[in-house]
Amino acid sequence: MAGNAIPRLGVFGGTFDPVHVGHLLLAQEAALHLSLDQTWFVPANYPPHKPGQVQTPFADRLAMVELAVAGNPAFSVSLLNADDATPNYSADLMAMLQAELCGQASFYFLMGMDSLRDLHTWHKPDWLVQNCELVVLNRPGVEEIWIAVEARFPGIQDRIHLVEMPGVDLSGTNIRARIDAGEPIRYLVPQSVHDYIEEYSLYVPKIGNSRP
Asked: pLDDT (tens digit, 9 = 90+) per residue, 138-147?
């Protein structure tokens, strides 16, 4: 940062089940194009938009994110959403940060296109759109998503920072599906995360417990 410039901070909330290279690429490209000084990865202990879904324990998801960002001084892991007693709403997180660090930092909330597609189901989505700098990963073939999102939030495209990044289209869902099918996930997640998943046999289906 030059002089007394206010730091520009990226806030990347998510389930991270597991964290993968798509997450890291989005954070990297957002930092590059928006000149972010630091990006906070904020794993959700209690993601409210995934009711009834079986999730990997928070301690494991947190450990994988810590492994994934290790060695990058521009990335860090936050425990702001570690509370397991209440849903981890993004709007509440951003409102808290803005209130506590008003004038001391500017915040950019990072999300993938899938999250933007489901934004209307989130807690206080209109508040997020009107009060936050939203950073969204753009990718080809999502015209229908944009049409639906624009219909729900008119003018939203003018309020969003779009990030173009290398052609990687990943999600925790398809990585878990590959493991379930016995397919390799090497190079889709950081090597340290790959080794952690293997060591603790994560995402291996248990009898009577099917994953979404």
From this structure: 877 788 999 9
Q: Phi and psi (nearest 5°) for 160?
A: -110, 140
- CB 20 within 8 Å of CB 49: no
Residue 96 has, within 13 A of its CA and on its CB side, a CA count of: 9
Least Cα distance to 37 among 9, 69, 12 occurs for 9
What confidence tier does 211 reach under pLDDT thresholds 50, 70, 90?
very low
User: DSSP of 177-207, one letter per residue?
Assistant: HHHHTT---BTTB-HHHHHHHHHTTTTPPBT
For residues 169 and 1, is the Cβ–Cβ distance under 8 A? no
The pTM (predicted TM-score) of the whole model is: 0.87
- CB neighbours of 133 closer than 8 A, spacing ≥ 6? 106, 107, 108, 109, 161
Distances from the Cα of 150 to the Cα of 13, 129, 156, angstroms: 23, 12, 6
> Beta-carbon neighbour count of residue 37 at 10 Å?
15
Query: Rounded to whole angstroms, what are the CA distances from 105 to 57, 96, 108, 118, 180?
Result: 32, 13, 10, 28, 42
Map tokens 């209307």 to a residue. Answer: 120
